[in-house]
Amino acid sequence: MRYPYLIIIIGAVLNLPMVSIAADYYDRSQEAIHQRTQPLGKVQLLQPETPTPSTAPTVDTVQPADVVLSGEQVYQQYCALCHINGVAGAPMLTDQTEWQTRLAQGKSVLLQHVVNGYRAMPAKGTCTKCSEQALQAAIDYMLEQAGL
Question: What is the pTM of this model?
Answer without folding.
Answer: 0.54
